[in-house]
Amino acid sequence: MVTPFRLSLTYVRVLHEDGPLANNDFATNAVGIDMAFPSNTYVRNHLGLAHQWESGPGWSARGFRIDLVSLGYPISLIESTVRLDLEPILTVLRGEIMFVDGGQRLLRLDSGFSLELSATVRHWFLTLQLFGIDFRYWIYASNGSFTGFSRVFPLRVAIGHEF
């Protein structure tokens, strides 16, 4: 059974990225919130809003990371004083709106999959993403529109409360 509404503070760090729409020289981080709403007894909808910043040689940008459509399927592993859940999450649509130093703006679209382990005690939880991969397929920038296929490997940690 899916637990009630969950609100968490999240931190994301991109560990590696490759492909024509990615640059592994960037250091990318994001801090934000994740709101998880139960949609029925098996599925949890996630809405994530975060402030993202990245930098690299000759590059610095700040903006927003928005998980618009994400579906989680929590699987209960242990029901005790500490509840452990494993949650595969399918991110159908993630947008990144970035404002580059110097005036350029860009929009990136990604989709992906992750596997998260959650430990819950007295409605407080800590979540660690065990595996995650995002697939970037479109970038719209001030200098044009670019399509392709790139892989992005993030690490995500969250702490929050169930209501």
How do you describe this structure in short?
This protein has 163 residues and is mainly β.
Walk me through the structure.
The chain is mainly β and 163 residues long. It has one domain: Porin (Beta Barrel). The chain is 0% helix and 79% strand. The protein has an eight-stranded antiparallel β-barrel with strand order 1-2-3-4-6-7-8-9. Strand 3 and strand 4 (59-72) form a beta hairpin. The two termini are 15 Å apart. The mean pLDDT is 96.
Q: Helices and strands in order, then pairings?
A:
Elements: E1 6-18, E2 27-38, E3 44-56, E4 59-72, E5 75-78, E6 83-100, E7 105-121, E8 124-141, E9 144-162
Structural class: mainly beta
> What is the string of SSEs from the N terminus onward?
EEEEEEEEE
CATH architectural name: Beta Barrel
Strand arrangement, major sheet: 1-2-3-4-6-7-8-9
Overall number of strands: 9
The gross shape turns out to be elongated
**Main beta sheet:** 8 strands, antiparallel, barrel
The domain count comes to 1
